[in-house]
Design brief:
Elements (H helix, E strand, L loop, with lengths): L8 H7 L26 H8 L14 H13 L4 E5 L2 H12 L5 E5 L4 H10 L6 E5 L4 H6 L5 E7 L11 H10 L4 E4 L4 H4 L9 E5 L13 E5 L5 H4 L3 H4 L10 H5 L3 H14 L5 H12 L1 H19 L5 E5 L9 H7 L7 E6 L2 H11 L4 E2 L9 E3 L11 H6 L6 E5 L5 H14 L3
Parallel strand pairs: 2-3, 2-4, 4-5, 5-6, 10-11
Antiparallel strand pairs: 1-7, 6-7, 8-9, 9-12, 11-12
Helix pairs in contact: 1-3, 1-13, 3-13, 4-12, 14-18, 16-18
């Protein structure tokens, strides 16, 4: 019999965070459609509001259905606590605002989702937080970018859309030497393919809209605290390590221990900014996680077959997929993601932007929309859509060519996907 304290990923994906309802015996997590929760007495209410005891107050802060989702994701990511949010963008915003203040500095990969880049480069800059964007493969440049005011290092497991693979153990060493946490966006990999916390990451977040949901039907995000960072030893995070006046002088590091960051992120980011996850959405995410392993296996297998076809297809200048030996980070991808290298690939067309437009308009099985991780195969032209807010220099640093097309390979018959691409490629220029 398996060790109940070391259950396999597939078992945790089905069971973590959910227990039979004690009143009815229902095996699925109930959907708690309640905005607020009754207190036992005045002392109980005061203790909850001061964070002295666990419990639910108001569903903007926490909800039992949402808590089940948070617990399941934390278990799958090998973390100590999860904090759910209304979107992946909200998850990043919660992380950034929890770790920074006016005058703070962030080091981030130059190959990032366009929304992430915009938040860091423009929106947070309005509040006095600056960001240095660095080639995530240039470890010396990352170390050189560290300042006394640096508060975290940010990278994506699989870069969007350039598909660079972050060397998480090396980045963790650089960040920890600087006394700051390593934050990893694990959206493209999912916890099935990679658990960044096991490679040294301190905080992991997802757009749960993508593979965690798996069907393009909800908007959601989640942050996972690995519980490993030495907040007190860093000396850069007084809100975690010193008495916090808004909550009766509580010291988060002392009271919540390894889950101190998650507790502060909920108390500030979720409560104050209000980007709460709805209970109905959390229920659907709990169900989505049950099939994550089998879906990611199929996504990865299909993507590899499509990438192998594109590598010799007419009109294709280059193909980027971490599962191909030709990818510069192939060895690293195989090490960090031995179960598969994901369902996302990109390729550059010889005819540039015009060819990309022709290809997309000719596809019939692939769906043209701005998402990834769907059961359906998806296609998009990043330079004109998801990364349109980047200027030409930022696009260059991110490795985004005018002719770059990104595919999110779904669960269809791979022969149908390849036939669809082949037909569309042969129509370009005609």
């Amino acid at each position: 019999m398996a060790d109940p304290d070391r259950l396999g990923f597939e078992t945790l994906a089905v069971h973590a965070g959910v227990r039979p309802d004690p009143r009815t015996g229902a095996s699925n997590v109930p959907v708690y459609l309640s905005s607020s929760y009754v207190f036992d007495d005045a002392d109980h209410a005061a203790s909850l509001f001061n964070l002295e005891i666990p419990g639910h107050i108001y569903s903007r802060i926490s909800n039992p259905t949402v808590a089940a989702f948070e617990e399941r994701v934390a278990a799958l990511e090998a973390g100590v606590a999860g904090v759910a949010t209304a979107s992946g963008q909200a998850a990043l915003a919660v992380v950034a605002t929890t770790l920074t203040e006016a005058g703070a500095h962030v080091i981030a990969s130059s190959s990032l989702y366009g929304g992430t880049h915009n938040l860091l480069a423009h929106t947070l800059a309005r509040f006095g937080v600056t960001t240095t964007f660095v080639d995530i493969r240039d470890h010396e440049a990352i170390a050189d970018a560290v300042r006394p005011e640096t508060r975290f290092v940010l990278a994506e497991t699989i870069g969007n859309p350039g598909l660079t693979i972050a060397d998480i153990p090396v980045l963790a060493d650089i960040a920890h030497t600087a006394g700051v946490p390593l934050v990893i966006d694990n959206t493209f990999a999912s916890p099935y393919l990679c658990r960044p916390a096991e490679w040294g990451a301190d905080i992991v977040f997802h757009s749960a809209t993508k593979y965690i949901s798996g069907h393009g039907s909800v908007i959601a995000g989640v942050v996972v605290d690995a519980g490993t960072f030495d907040w007190a030893g860093s000396g850069r995070f007084p809100r975690i390590c010193e008495p916090y006046a808004p909550y009766g002088g509580i010291v988060f590091a002392d009271h919540f221990g390894p889950a101190a960051f998650a507790a502060l992120a909920r108390a500030e980011g979720v409560r104050d900014f209000g980007a709460a996850l709805a209970a109905e959405v959390a229920y659907r995410l709990v169900e989505g996680l049950e099939s994550l392993a089998v879906r990611m296996q199929r996504h990865s297998a299909n993507a590899r077959l499509v990438a192998e076809y594109l590598a010799s297809a007419p009109g294709v200048a280059s193909v980027s997929y971490p599962g191909l030996a030709s990818h510069p980070d192939h060895a690293r991808a195989a090490k960090l993601m031995p179960r598969g290298q994901g369902g996302i690939l990109a390729f550059v067309l010889e005819g540039g932007r015009d060819s990309g437009r022709q290809l997309i308009d000719s596809l019939r099985v692939f769906t043209h929309l701005a998402n990834v991780g769907d059961s359906r195969s998806l296609v998009i032209h990043p330079a004109s859509t998801t990364h349109a807010q980047l200027d030409s220099e930022a696009l260059r640093r991110a490795g985004i060519d005018e002719g770059l097309v990104r595919l999110s390979v779904g669960l269809e018959d791979p022969d149908d996907l390849i036939a669809d691409l082949d037909r569309a490629l042969r129509r370009i220029g005609k």
